[in-house]
Amino acid sequence: MSMPSFIAHDWLRKISAFIFAVLVYVSISLQLSEERTIERTIEHVKVNVEVAPANSSDIVILTEKEIFTNLKLRGSDQDLNSITNNQIEIKHLINSNRDGVYNFRITADQVSLPSGVSLVTEGIMPNKFTVNLDRKIERADIPIRLRFSTENLPNDKEIRKTSIQPNTARIVGPSIYVNDVDEVVTEVLALDGNSGNTYIQNLNLIDMPRITINPSKVQASVELRQSSDTRLYNDIPVQLMRGSRNLSEIKVDDSLVKVTLEGTTDELEQLSKNDFRAFVMLDEGAPAGPYKLPVLVWIRNDKITLRNVSPTRIDVQVLPTQPE
């Protein structure tokens, strides 16, 4: 079948003209689409709420939940179809210096949009919000407590002394939180006895929600020693320490005392009853009469200490001096 003469004649030029016409149509359609004004709602746009710099030293926002809204925008088809909520900024500054409930409204001047799009009238949905404000306060001299773990410490060692420097902190934050703080604590210092008997380490202070702690670190020092033990000695006689007074002038109650000593297990094992004495002291010039004197204990080994003595006092009678 032959092609009609009106098509066959100069057909290459006719095909080229047809393709050009299609391209022109597509180009014009795209331009019309770009210039066509439409409306679109952008959902879940974050609302940034901040305290104005003039009030930021006195007021803090308590509400932690993020605030979102929806915006109805107008613009070209191309501009609106390419926009995302991350390209939009909504910022509200709180100028109030009073704590409590704060109600506010988002207005068009608080919305920053990309070029080519605009906000439809009444296009912020919702536009009313509420946050809670609190007064920012400061407290000083908050005690710092050293935390440590003795889980891996050998049984023959115990803590002798601990210290931290500095031992107090300053905290700043919302009054509802700051007023509830009794102490600041350190991270846990693990004691295992492998570093000798002295630990010196810088420790972080544990953060508290919404509160600034100063300083953020302290230097901790822990000294270990051999674990102490106690030993009870029964029926220990009480001696009288006196001056030149005649013994016949003094009558001491025949009571015996119980003495409890504290020290390391090794030191207590080596201790005998000859290594300590229970005694009372009487002033040389004490007049005649009854006395109830405290029982004192002398210990030869200064690494062993007195834990307890019972009874703590005994009766002593000073008799009148007999004439010669």
**Overall 3D shape:** elongated
Beta percentage is: over 45%
Oligomer: single chain
Q: What string, H for helix and E for strand, traces the elements in order?
A: HHEEEHEEEEEEEHEEEEEEEHEEEEE
Radius of gyration: 45 Å
User: Tally the helices: what do you get?
Assistant: 5
- Find the count of extended strands (DSSP E, 2+ residues): 22
Quickly count the domains: 4
**What's the main sheet like?**
6 strands, mixed
Compute the separation of the termini in Å. Answer: 172 Å
Could you walk me through the main structural features you see in this protein, from its secondary elements to its overall organization?
The protein is mostly beta strands. The chain folds into four domains: 5-34; 37-126; 138-226, YbbR-like domain (RNA Polymerase Alpha Subunit, Chain A, domain 2, Beta Complex), CATH 2.170.120; 229-318, RNA Polymerase Alpha Subunit, Chain A, domain 2 (Beta Complex), CATH 2.170.120. It contains five helices and 22 strands. The mean pLDDT is 85.
Overview features:
about 325 residues; mainly beta; RNA Polymerase Alpha Subunit, Chain A, domain 2; 4 domains; 6-stranded mixed beta sheet; 5-stranded mixed beta sheet; 5 helices; elongated
Brief description of this entry?
The protein has 324 residues and is mainly β. 14% of the residues lie in helices and 52% in strands. It has 4 domains: 30 residues; 90 residues; 89 residues, RNA Polymerase Alpha Subunit, Chain A, domain 2 (Beta Complex), CATH 2.170.120.40; 90 residues, RNA Polymerase Alpha Subunit, Chain A, domain 2, CATH 2.170.120.30.
